[in-house]
Amino acid sequence: MPTPPPNWLPLLHTIADAADAIALRHFRRADLAVARKGDASPVTDADRGIEEAARRIVAQEHPSLGVLGEETGETASDGSARLIIDPIDGTRNFVRGIPVFATLLAIEAMGDVVAGLVSAPALGLRWHAARGHGAFCGPRRLRVSSVARLPQAQLFHGSIGGVGEGNPLPTLLALARQVERTRGFGDFYQHVLVAEGAGEVAVDPVVQAWDAAALQVLVEEAGGKATTLAGARDIRGGSLVSSNHRLHDAALAVLAGRGT
Prior knowledge:
The protein is an alpha+beta fold. It has 2 domains: 9-133, Fructose-1,6-Bisphosphatase, Chain A, domain 1 (2-Layer Sandwich), CATH 3.30.540; 150-255, D-Maltodextrin-Binding Protein, domain 2, CATH 3.40.190.80. The protein has helices at 9-26, 45-61, 91-95, 172-176, 187-196, 209-221, 248-255; strands at 34-36, 42-44, 66-69, 73-75, 81-89, 102-109, 112-120, 125-130, 135-137, 140-141, 154-157, 181-183, 201-204, 225-227, 240-243. The protein has an 8-stranded mixed β-sheet, with helices on both faces. Strands 12-11-13-15-14 form a 5-stranded mixed β-sheet, sandwiched between helices. A two-stranded antiparallel ribbon has the order 1-2. It is globular and about 50 Å long. The mean pLDDT is 93.
């Protein structure tokens, strides 16, 4: 009889508990120190502290587990699984005192993301998913919406410009013209809203693996779809479009300049 896959969610919740405490200890502090990384994005003591805490917990509880983190890179594993962590997704929000930020945690095993957790302590919310076992916010199971036409859809997006954000996706406005409503939540929040059924499409034109991993499994386990702008199911593909599945191809066509 085959050995059942490990249940990674208890580990992710343990890490998230530690991350929440660190994030809230630093959030909205007048003396919060903010540095700039090589790409000009901000980093704080909270970002570094959360990733350090995650690595300590992994070393204590699962020493064979590798780690890929935004702040300190990759630690090789002795096995075929690793933790992928974005200690604070939405650091710019965090720095400005906006409560829409989260720690993103995922387990990648044999090249596939098998578990994910998103913890937004300032919102008092936590979402989690395990491959084949559904997606949840607390005890509430998540389901994507049943909207099947773009004119009835709600579109979420991030920045539409700004010196620190780069150029917006040129075809985003074309998609916005075809849907019923748009809202610019950005970062992790737009994708968990798709998983919750509160909207149909979310677009992130530039992401890293640690931005996408937890969100991919969360959206998919809620019945949705998560790919790159090119339609590849790849957390390293550099972009992330999530949807309720029904509208995915139509949205990608418009974003690729093929839709009308």
